[in-house]
Amino acid sequence: MICRMPLIRRAEPADAEAVERVETDADSLLIALLEAHDWPPAAPAEERFAAPGFVLVAEADGAEVAGFVHVIETDGICHLEQLSVAPTHARKGWGRALLDAAKSEARERGYRRMTLRTYADVPWNAPFYVSAGFHEEHPSTAFHRALIDAEKRLGLDAYGRRVQMVAVLG
After folding, report:
1. What is the dihedral of CA 129, 132, 138, 141, to 10 degrees?
2. CB neighbour list of residue 76: distance below 8 Å, 6 or more residues apart
3. Segment 9-55, tens digit of pLDDT
4. What b-and-e string marks burial along 121-131, b requiring 16 or more CB atoms within 10 Å of the CB?
5. CA of 117: how far to CAs of 12, 14, 64, 121, 149, in Å?
6. 3-class DSSP state for residue 16?
7. CA gap 15, 65 in Å, rounded
8. 85-118: per-residue pLDDT in tens?
9. How far apart are CA 120 and CA 167, in angstroms?
């Protein structure tokens, strides 16, 4: 079977259900790995679409949404909020394609840096982002400190070390 790279495009309102399903399915892998049975549900896609920033989706053959990336823009900060690929499409390069497209879009919007927060020791989290040019940095803005507080409220820090990472977009 030949696997073609996905078409990456801006998310549309009609993609909302698929975006939520992709995140829920992708989260199931993390929940199983971390044994995190009280994991918070996926954010409603309408909230993602309404947030300042952008959402890109990857279309598999037949226009199926196979993954998405959500980037928040606030106070001059470009922050990768979520990158999810459906487990049925994982390990085919689609997450990297989405990440590259998000970085390209951010550069076009004038950003020189992109941040994110993730688990340090989950193979498809921090190690993946390191391979894509990200490195750890100390949270130094009010926005990033607020993210840490939100993670604590959600109990995410109970499942492993969380880190902030940054990529220079050039």
Report:
1. -100
2. none
3. 999 999 999 999 999 999 999 999 899 888 888 888 889 999 999 99
4. ebebbbebbee
5. 25, 28, 28, 12, 12
6. helix
7. 7
8. 999 888 888 999 999 999 999 999 999 999 999 9
9. 16
Q: Could you give the maximum distance between any two Cα atoms of the chain, in Å?
A: 48
Q: Token match 């498809």: residue?
A: 124
The SS3 of residue 168 is strand
**Tokens representing 98?**
């989405």
Query: Whole-prediction pTM value?
Result: 0.92
Distance between first and last Cα of the chain: 37
Residue 98: enclosing H or E segment and its boundaries?
A: helix 94-108
